[in-house]
Amino acid sequence: MRMLLIHSDYLEYEVKDKALKSPEPISEEQKKGRLEEVLAVFMSVEKADESNPEEVVEKAVAEIKDVASQVKANRIFVYPFAHLSSELAKPDVALKVLQRIEERLREEGFEVKRAPFGYYKAFRLSCKGHPLAELSRTIVPSGEAVSKEERNIALEKEEELKSYWYILTPEGELVEVDKFDFTGHENLRKFANYEISKSRIADREPPHVRIMLEQELVDYEPGSDPGNLRYYPKGRLIKGLLEQYVTEKVIEYGAMEVETPIMYDFEHPALEKYLNRFPARQYVVKSGDKKFFLRFAACFGQFLIKKDATISYRNLPLRMYELTRYSFRREKSGELSGLRRLRAFTMPDMHTVARDLKQAMDEFKKQYKLSMEVLRGVGLTPDDYEVAIRFTEDFWKENRDFIVELARIIGKPVLIEMWKQRFFYFILKFEFNFVDNLDKAAALSTVQIDVENAERFGITYYDEEGKERYPLILHCSPSGAIERVMYAILEKQAKLQARGVKPSFPLWLSPIQVRVIPVSDEVLDYALYVAGKLEGAKIRVDVDDTGDRLNKKIRKAEKEWVPYIIVVGKNEKEQGTVTVRRRSDGKQVEMQLEDLIKEIRSQTEGFPYRPRPLPLLLSRRPKFRG
Q: Which UniProt keyword terms apply here (predicted)?
């Protein structure tokens, strides 16, 4: 069963037509209904619920009671809503489950109304909008038969785990999330709502999808599994530069780069146990009679390397890194959304062996700062993302000052998720989360302190006395998935565009940094000379040699977000100058070519470079879309 629970000022409905051949019989009075100050519970009864309907009823009632107590609601509106699932139960089973839930809630002392089952209905709802106002729940009967490959204990536990949510200020004040004043922190409010609701379904197309298609960066691939994308030349350039940038940053930090397989033995004892501790759905493939799974992170390969290595305390902290192209997670189809959530993605993945908690926490803080630095390089500042820190109640009591310092470093309030006891393999985790134009959040950078997998995989180090010890392991992605970084960059530009600001890429990421536009064929030779000089200075440049009018050429360059547009005519050719239009400030100036090269190089210094991804002349280029 899937439930969407919305604390509402009111919910009202009106029956319009039959959705089933034999819907639930209703009276005229039941064709309309309204309830005020209500917890609206939208429900889909699923095929899996048929195995134990009564257990599903009891679990659903328990969840509804728990949410109702949190939002202080004593009125419940049970609303059949088939759109929450694509695996629906038989209508007769679904109706009985809904009727029984209605009965049980009344027995618990709630005022209950239920909308009719089997009809198309119009409804109006006013959501209260506080952090606990929108929540989702998934109920799985314990008797449901699932295969070993399909079952993931960590995912099931993640849905059942009870979280306590707070906001932590840089001053060290811990405030229950529903009591925090979000004035001036609207993005944090949206992030808290998203995290607490646990609803990951994308019901609309986010704006970055339009941009990635218009700019001919990335496209859907109908010939593959959904969530696997195709990259056109400009998109591949941006992705490649990001991969190179993050890798250089991590190696500069002190990590050793390795490469490991993408496919692992499903029956490997250590790997099999880890599968049920990591909340990700895996792809399973067969080779002969053996089953393998496609990796969903670089953990497995790096752990197996560390297991076979001889590690001394003098080697610690020991950092190992791989850029995984690709990692695979079998996300639900409704969660797939452009570049935000994919089934195949590129993850920069570093794992650090630390001798003890003190060294691990020192590394954690350094990697926290490294992640801030990496995101700043791609144009994302702390104003663009929100921080979540997750840990157990015991960890908070023992390390409060350390957690407060993390909030102080970022310089703004952060979201805290606290558990009474630990279930996952980590004791501490942070994420930097980008909140997009649809108020959905996606994790970028993350670091976790892992207390289980050294022993599980047999990873040890020798201490000063020559004794073998189990270390702690930090999992770090200083940027998050490369595709998700692209998503965040595009979504940020969509926000700016909505405010009337010209969107742009960071200059070092712009597929074409300069476009040279000759006013006529007579000066094409000079345009090519200018382009050659720029290209020699490692600046990506192209030339619009098409027969379009000058204004159209300029509009085309603007539409492609080209940062610098150079228009050359007879005067420029005779004087050896260029007339430059800057996208950043809209100014048009005449300058020496050498000065333009210096200006561009000053903004791209320290970042990776790749040559132009398309032919020099626009007339030679294919159109990839439309």
A: Aminoacyl-tRNA synthetase, ATP-binding, Cytoplasm, Ligase, Metal-binding, Nucleotide-binding, Protein biosynthesis, RNA-binding, tRNA-binding, Zinc
Amino acid at 164: Y
Q: Are 391 and 509 in contact (CB under 8 A)?
A: no
What topology is assigned to 2-138 in CATH?
A: D-tyrosyl-trna(Tyr) Deacylase; Chain: A; (3.50.80)
Q: In the chain, what is the greatest distance between 2 CA atoms, to the nearest angstrom?
A: 91
Among 438, 453, 416, 545, CA closest to 494? 438
Binding site for Zn(2+), by residue number, is: 299, 351, 475
pLDDT at 145: 41
CA atoms of 202 and 225, how far apart (whole Å): 18
Q: Which of 337, 589, 595 shows the shortest CA–CA distance to 483?
A: 337
- Whether 166 and 295 have beta carbons less than 8 Å apart is answered as no
pTM over 0.85: no
Domain at 507-620, CATH class: alpha beta
Domain boundaries, the chain: 2-138, 159-178+189-489, 507-620
Cα–Cα dist 543/282, whole Å = 46
Under 8 Å between Cβ of 449 and 426: yes
CATH of segment(s) 159-178+189-489: 3.30.930.10
Distance of alpha carbon 496 from the chain centroid: 20
* Residues in the annotated binding site: 299, 351, 475
| 156: exposed, middle or buried (Cβ count in 10 Å: 0-12, 13-18, 19+) | middle
Residues 589, 590, 596: CA angle, nearest 5 degrees: 85
Report d(CA 491, CA 497) in Å as an integer.
Answer: 10
Write out the two tokens for 348: 């920069």
- 541's CB contacts (< 8 A; 6+ apart) are 512, 513, 514, 515, 516, 530, 531, 534, 535, 612, 616
pLDDT of residue 150: 43
> What pLDDT is attached to residue 148?
45
Give yes or no for a contact between 220 and 454, defined as CB atoms under 8 angstroms apart. Answer: no
Nearest partner of 114 among 42, 216, 199, 201, judged by Cα: 42
In three-state secondary structure terms, 335 is helix
Task: Give strand pairing partners of 42.
Answer: 4, 79
Q: Do the two domains 2-138 and 159-178+189-489 of this chain adopt the same fold? A: no
Read off the tokens for 13.
Answer: 């409905």
Give CA–CA dist 33/10, Å, rounded. Answer: 11
Say which residue the tokens 């050896």 belong to.
576
- Using CA atoms, how far residue 459 sits from 324, 456, 462, 473, 502, in Å, is 22, 8, 11, 10, 51
Retrieve residue 343's tokens: 């089934």
Say how far residue 482 (Cα) sits from the centre of its chain. Answer: 10
The predicted structure's pLDDT at residue 496: 96
| Phi, psi for residue 566 in degrees, rounded to 5 | -110, 125
- 10-residue averages of pLDDT along the chain (626 residues): 94 94 92 95 92 92 93 95 86 94 95 95 92 84 50 55 91 96 96 83 82 96 91 98 98 97 85 66 84 88 96 98 92 82 94 98 98 98 97 95 98 96 89 95 96 94 97 98 98 96 97 97 96 97 97 97 97 94 93 96 97 98 90
- Distance separating alpha carbons of residues 202 and 193, to the nearest angstrom: 15
